[in-house]
Amino acid sequence: MMPLAHRRILLGVTGSIAAYKAVTLLRTLRAQGADVRVVMTSAAKRFVTPLTFEVLSGHPVVDNLFSDPSGLPHIRLPEEADLILIAPCTANRLAKYALGIADDLLSTLLLTTARPVILAPAMDGAMWRQPALMHHVETLRARGVTVLDPESGPLASGQWGEGRMPGEEAILSALRARLSAQRDWQGHRFLISAGPTREAIDPVRFLSNGSTGKMGYAIAEAAVQRGGEVVLVSGPTELLPPAGVEQVSVVSAEEMYQALSLRFPWATVLIMAAAVSDFRPRKPLSDRKIKKDQWNGEPLELERTPDILAALSAQRTHQCLVGFAAETEDVLRHGHDKLMRKRLDMVVVNRVGGSESAFGSETNDVFVLTKHGATVHIPRSSKRAVADRILDELHRINAPACTSEFLPSS
Ligand SMILES: Cc1cc2nc3c(=O)[nH]c(=O)nc-3n(C[C@H](O)[C@H](O)[C@H](O)COP(=O)(O)O)c2cc1C
User: Fold this and answer.
1) Residue 16 CB less than 6 A away from ligand 1
2) pTM, 2 dp
3) Which residues have C-beta within 8 Å of that of residue 49, sequence separation ≥ 6?
4) Domains in the chain, ordered, with CATH?
5) Atom of ligand 1 nearest to the CA of 43
6) 13 lines ligand 1 (CB under 6 A)
7) 375-406, pLDDT tens digit by residue?
8) Which of 11, 14, 16, 119 to mutate to test the pocket of ligand 1 (most atoms within 8 A of CB)?
9) In 48-94, at which residue ranges do the beta strands (DSSP E only) sit?
């Protein structure tokens, strides 16, 4: 069996002196059974002709956003691929992708897709060491893009240094890793909650918390990229839903409860990453904005909001349930209590408050507690990387609560 049989790869070739290496790479990918479509940048065509790639791939090279018969090549091409590989990848491409610039076919298609992306940089050593470029590499890695390290050796400038396009073996190994991890949640339907809720005091004031939704959105992105179907029920945030994720917007805890209850029978996995308000005003004090001088000191009476996770846990049929516990102290004990009390498969515990708070941060440092008694520490890393680790752990316990029909394939 050829290792890449039935795999569809979109190969982006950019304007590096290493563009000729993309020709042999294409031959290797084809020899391993992959179906490869090539997109070239204008600069790449100065180095190698499209004809070479057309003959070797068996498909026309697409190089223009505006001349494709489908009319939408930037959407069609990634949809028809399992993975996007840019080799060689210039400094210019790295920067454009990190900054979200969309000014030609290759840069635009990268922004439309949730498919895994691998970049194989090739450039002069001085370019690779530029602080601006290093920053872009970090940004892309934090977003889940695989940016390979260039190799060291003789460079086109005659100098010796780091900047050569990574070798075929490194590229193939990254490709295999991304392709095999990629679909491990195929067949699963994720219902994920994210963000804060707002409990109205009057039409302009509310009780809420500092959650930005980043952790829940990162899990939604990881789940969809790993083959799951995802509905994200989100309280008010500044974030855009990841590509391929259906978003349902809610404001209050009650609305979140309704939205999740409605979809719960459909789901195979529920992940409650939202920071739902535990309390709400017993009744909004007024349906008009309370003026400063109208308030004469009466206390704001609070009541408990619905305990969404406990309520859904009581209704579960086949779903696996993952809760989050945001605690300021004694985090593991509180997390363990929650796991037991709500009969969850897994609890992700993070610390909130203080300088290392999870709220609003780009990174997180969590403990995962499983119903089998394991405690796994995921050290501080980007929320997107933490999201993948959480899904790995959930995959590992293989969540017997999920019906076998939907068990993740390995
Ligand atoms: C002979 C030559 C070789 C080049 N090699 C590289 C390279 O290896 N890496 C790189 O980042 N840029 C290289 N450049 C510069 C890029 O071609 C230039 O930044 C271009 O705008 C990249 O366009 P693209 O990213 O749209 O393909 C080279 C330029 C020339 C003239």
Assistant:
1) yes
2) 0.59
3) none
4) 8-182 (3.40.50.1950), 189-406 (3.40.50.10300)
5) 27
6) no
7) 999 887 778 778 988 998 999 886 444 543 44
8) 16
9) 83-89
